[in-house]
Amino acid sequence: MRYIIIGAGAVGGTIGARLHEGGHEVVLVARGAHLGALRADGLWFGTPQGTRTLRVPAVGGPAELALRPDDVLLLAVKSQDTAAVLAEWAPRPVAGGGTAGERLPLVCAQNGVENERLALRLFREVLAVFVWMPSTHVAPGRVSANGTPVSGILRLGGYPSGGGGERAAAIAADLDGSGFSAPVDADVARWKYTKLLGNLGNALDAVAGRGPYGRGSADGRLEALYERVTAEGAAVLAAAGIPHDDPEELARTCGKVLRLEPVEGEQRTGSSSWQSLARGTGSIEADHLNGEIVLLARLHGAAAPLNEALQRLAGEFARAGRAPGSLTPEELDLLAALAGL
After folding, report:
1. Which of 105, 119, 246, 275 has a CA that sits 20 to 30 A from residue 87's CA?
2. Which residues of 283-297 are buried (b: 16+ CB within 10 A; e: fewer)?
3. pLDDT tens, residue by residue, 58-95
4. DSSP string spanning 90-153?
5. Where does the chain show beta strands of DSSP type E?
6. Rounded to whole angstroms, how far apart are CA atoms 87 and 85?
7. How far apart (Å, rounded) are the C-alpha atoms in residues 262 and 279?
8. Dihedral of CA 130/134/136/141: which sign?
């Protein structure tokens, strides 16, 4: 199989690098300065075991690639970019007849729970992946992964349900042999919803967590907000009848599989949402993380005022180009008031 990594940032770049090092054929899909650096200098990839430069083929989109029947499309873009990317790739022809949407598997290695649903409109075969991967898109052409002894946990399952059959087993075997823990799991949705709860604090981390408050505030309100936004999300999932586990227990479970260690010459930054603000991308995942809870609350007659406020605030930060961690004391006061703090 040839793996086409659509979105070669922190997660996609790490998966592509590890598969390449594992002897698999890989093509990275990127854009802008990142694509230019990959083409000119290769992918600089850092792990606790050392740094290296990998010469992995890189393209800017499907027009630059002749698709083959043995291709696997692995989607690792941010959720806000998914719809546009799917529309671009699904109609592309595959050698021997048919289109990518008709013939190729699409593997969604992304945060949130909406990507697979969007994909199933255009692709016949969709695999969902729970991703636990401490990684950073450091700069154009540079990706680091702090996990060891594996770089990440990638639990695969069919969508909307099931183990995904022989194809999922083959993909999981390739990942498992390339520096990941990659079991096949018919109940991967439960893992993804549990991680969604844990990701609800990403917007708070982006706007406040790495700023003047560090990872906390002198009066403890910031720490309390992390707890409140997660509790609010859990209450909404309960109202919607969606099963999940405790995100703190999930973190402990994953911590038994991988631990974080430094990468030489690199400093680990904040969440994926923090990284979006730091890179000035102009967009952020909050609409598909906190926004998922807001959507479910509206559908099921529940309330999610704190998630709604964080979704709106994170979007404003992204559109205005505000730096991560630049939440003002006045803005913190407003969030705290919503949470009753």
Report:
1. 275
2. bbbbbbbbbbbbbbb
3. 999 999 999 999 999 999 999 999 999 999 999 999 99
4. TT-BBTTSSBHHHHS-EEE--SSSSHHHHHHTT-S-EEEEEEE--EEEEETTEEEE-EESSSEE
5. 2-6, 25-29, 43-47, 50-54, 58-59, 71-75, 106-108, 126-132, 135-139, 142-145, 147-148, 152-158, 180-181, 259-260
6. 5
7. 21
8. negative
